Amino acid sequence: MDAPEAVMAGPTRQSELLASGALTSRELTEATLAAIERENPAINAVVRMLSDEALAAADEADRRRAAGEELPLLGVPIVVKDDLGIAGHTTGLGSRAMLRPASQDSDLVAALRAVGMVVVAKSTLPELAIFGFAESAATGVTRNPHHHGHTPGGSSGGSAALVAAGAVGIATASDGAGSIRIPAACCGLVGFKPTHGTMPSSGGWHGLSTQGGLARRVADSALFLDTFGTFPTSLVAAARTDPEPLRIGMSFSASAATRAAPLDPQVRATVQAAAETFRAAGHTVTEVDVPYGLAAKALTIRYLAGIRDGADGVDRPDLLEPRTRAIARLGRPFGARAVEWARRKGHEWGGRVHDDLGVDVLLTPVMSGPAIEVEHWKGKGGLATVLSMNAFYPYTAQWNQAGVPAVSMPAGSAANGLPIAVQLIGRRGDDARLMSLAAQLERSA
Questions:
Q1: What does the alpha-carbon distance between residue 373 and residue 375 come to, in Å, rounded to a whole number?
Q2: Closest Cα to residue 440, out of 322, 293, 282, 288?
Q3: pLDDT tens digits, one per residue of 317-374
Q4: Which value, in Å, is the radius of gyration of the alpha carbons in the chain?
Q5: Pairing mode of beta strands 190-193, 210-215
Q6: Residue 445: Cβ-neighbour burial (10 angstroms; 0-12, 13-18, 19+)
Q7: Closest CA to 304 of 262, 344, 335
Q8: Is 408 a catalytic residue?
Q9: Sheet holding 190-193, edge to edge
Q10: Backbone phi, then psi, for 161, in 5-degree steps?
Q11: Which one of the listed residues 155, 156, 159, 209 is annotated catalytic?
């Protein structure tokens, strides 16, 4: 396998090629940089290329391997979402209001460097990672490589677009209300949101947000999370093994926090087909209604308070987009007591919801339909955007406040060729079993 072909192979295969000496990190990094330069003009997913730094890091990775180091991801290229600090570069957060360069690497970036991964670029996101699309006044419109007239989702839309375009094998992503799973669903990728507290640089939006990655295959997601997270059981090993028979609850119910958009029949059929696949594999699948209760109110408080805090922390608040300022104002009434109540309610609900339903895993849609058109929310005010966006994405955010693992899995295609995904949601701390189930679904495709 030559270097250009290896760019799309993903980090698991890339690690094997590097370890065998079939490729050097320098060769793989040069091919990745060339692929990004080739694909990015059509999708606009890059905030900043880091070519010189990347080539220097690749040379260092090759020296480390020659000296006998055998770390799994040593020399593997990666794109970093522009919500993570890289020393000497501005952490833009999709905003014109961020101006100061980071004084040090964020915890996750430092961990990437420690194992010898090669950071090649920073990817686009909406302002302050608020939205389920990747459009901002700072960086423009990021487009879905499957169809340039549609969004790659958000907030990790730039990362998803680059991986889906075959320009890089893996990219970092963060998820505060669906921002790993929504782009994965839009772009036909694996998007695994791990149990909260397991990954470095997590915890934003009062604990709603966690870091993760976007990849084309379950094994690649497992390798990335295993390398940087803290899990009691190997996710890589779990991805190689079918799970024991599980009780799976299929649910189409959405949070009452907003009125969900009508579910596209193609999405419903895809979820039902996944249920039949699981039945054929020996699992029990029953339809259930998720009891959201006060969890919807608790989520709203943490989300809006988190955006308020993010807006207060920028370098130039006057340069924030009007829509962002409007949403931040909605969070002004929520003080420390309200946020603490919301965190407690979300944690309690997340700890019991599977038991209340008598299931091990939930199976749901990720979105109400395939990826929506770009600029669908252009010109809308703050509240109107939040309500309309939450109507189209009503299946993801509750699982952030629950703190449980959830994964978006590609499971089909719509009539227009855009990907359709399903979501699997496990118990808190049950990442390995969820990874095993996701891999089983992948193998059945």
A1: 6
A2: 282
A3: 999 999 999 999 999 999 999 999 999 999 999 999 999 999 999 999 999 999 999 9
A4: 20
A5: antiparallel
A6: exposed
A7: 335
A8: no
A9: 46-49, 118-123, 77-81, 170-175, 210-215, 190-193, 406-413, 419-425, 361-365, 247-250, 284-287
A10: -65, -40
A11: 155
SS3 content of the chain, % helix, strand, coil (to 5): 45, 15, 40
The tens digit of pLDDT for each residue in 95-132 reads 999 999 999 999 999 999 999 999 999 999 999 999 99
The catalytic residue among 81, 122, 193, 345 is: 81
Burial of 417 (0-12, 13-18, 19+ CB in 10 A): exposed
Two structure tokens written together for 326: 């409007």
By CB atoms closer than 10 A (0-12, 13-18, 19+), residue 19 is middle
Given a cut of 80, whether residue 257 has pLDDT beyond it is no
Residue-level length of the chain: 445
Predicted TM-score (pTM) of the model is 0.98
- H helices then E strands: how many in the chain? 17, 13
Among 129, 172, 177, 135, smallest CA distance to 152 is for 135
The CB density around residue 259, as the number of other CB atoms within 10 Å, is 10
Could you tell me the two tokens for 114?
A: 């420690």
What letter represents residue 307's amino acid?
I
Q: Give catalytic status of residue 156 as yes or no.
A: no
Give which of 143, 170, 146, 151 is closest to 159, Cα–Cα: 170
Looking up tokens 């101006």, which residue turns up? Answer: 99
Query: CB of 413 within 8 A of CB of 269?
Result: no
Report whether 168 contacts 7 (CB < 8 A): yes
Paired tokens of 400: 């952030």
> Residues near 179 by Cβ (< 8 Å), separated by ≥ 6?
129, 132, 154, 155, 156, 173, 209
Beta carbons of 426 and 433 less than 8 angstroms apart: yes
Task: State the catalytic residue, choosing from 25, 95, 136, 179.
Answer: 179
C-alpha neighbours within 13 Å on the C-beta side of residue 35:
26
Across the range 413-431, mean pLDDT stands at 98
Q: Which of 395, 134, 424 is nearest to 263 (CA)?
A: 395
Which phi and psi (to 5°) does residue 420 adopt? -125, 140
- DSSP class per residue in 2-32: -HHHHTTT-HHHHHHHHHHTSS-HHHHHHHH
- Rounded to whole angstroms, the Cα distance separating 283 from 36 reads 41
Closest-CA residue to 364 (of 287, 425, 434, 423) = 423
Question: For the purposes of burial, counting CB atoms within 10 Å of the CB of 410, is it exposed (0-12), middle (13-18) or buried (19 or more)?
Answer: buried
Question: Tokens in use for 108?
Answer: 């996750």
Q: Which H/E stretch holds residue 211?
A: strand 210-215
DSSP string, 84-111: S--BTSB--TT-TT--SBBSS--HHHHH
